[in-house]
Amino acid sequence: MNEFTLILVTGLGLGALYFLAASGLSLIYGLMGVLNFAHSAFMMAGSYAGWEVMRRLPDSMSVTLRLLLAILAALVVGALIGAVVEVTLIRPLYKHHIQQVLVTVGLSLAAVAVAQAVWSADPKPMESPEWMSTTTELGGALLPNDRLVFVAVALALFLGLLALLRYTRLGLIIRAGVENRTMVEALGINVRSTFTIVFAMGGAAAALAGILYSQYVGAVSPAQGGSLLIYAFIVVVIGGMGSLVGTAVAAVAVGLVQQMANYYAASGAGDLSVVLLLAIVLLLRPASMKGGHA
């Protein structure tokens, strides 16, 4: 039983990382209809911003405090990049979906090239608080603290986004602007700036995923945003394109399936199991490729 609890919690922790990576992607597509392949660049920017902050802060500060400041910096960088990308590249292309894909794919490739030129292609070790590498006993099982942190952060983000979209004026404007932009603009509300905020939120969520993923793997590298983006897209497709609740459920399912397959089948079987899960969902529910609602 202790063994199963450990696998369950580690699977939930992995699913939490996938949700953090997929939430911004789902938010941007569900509310704006933009399939953002540059999401990997946002995640990479967050991880490198956090790494730069941690290594430049004095060693006299605790690692935990430096990590918190690094996360704050990553959120700011991700939000700024998201807003700039929306204003300069996405806004002129809202009615041109093929061009959106080409621009965001090109941006993701360019971001990797820039990161390699600035920091090289070699992974940079990411410092982690000692307590995140230890375990907490719960019900007789020793559970990794970092997975518990990932779950807590993902749950807070999920509840925060739902509350924002359903119970705030900004959320009402966002949803109304998606349904009938002309009517909202006729009321004197600037929908363009609202959509910029959505993109900034998506960028911040991606940056948060990037820096926490660097804690998970213990390093930052130009390619890790792309590898995480693959799982993010799988989660978004399984959960229903644009559905925030569906994304959360799919992230948990993918994390658990991958972890259990790796443990009970063979090392590396987890990736295959995730692809099989995606194939089954597409066969049984092809409508998951269509847009949904957050």
Automatic annotation (TrEMBL):
Pfam families: BPD_transp_2. The chain crosses the membrane at residues 6-27, 63-89, 101-119, 148-168, 189-216, 228-256, 263-284. It is found in: Cell membrane. It comes from the Bacteria. One of its GO terms (cellular component) is plasma membrane. Its main location: membrane. Keywords: Amino-acid transport, Cell membrane, Membrane, Transmembrane, Transmembrane helix, Transport. GO terms for biological process: amino acid transport. GO terms for molecular function: transmembrane transporter activity. It is a multi-pass membrane protein. Belongs to the binding-protein-dependent transport system permease family. LivHM subfamily. This is Branched-chain amino acid transport system permease protein. It comes from Janibacter cremeus.
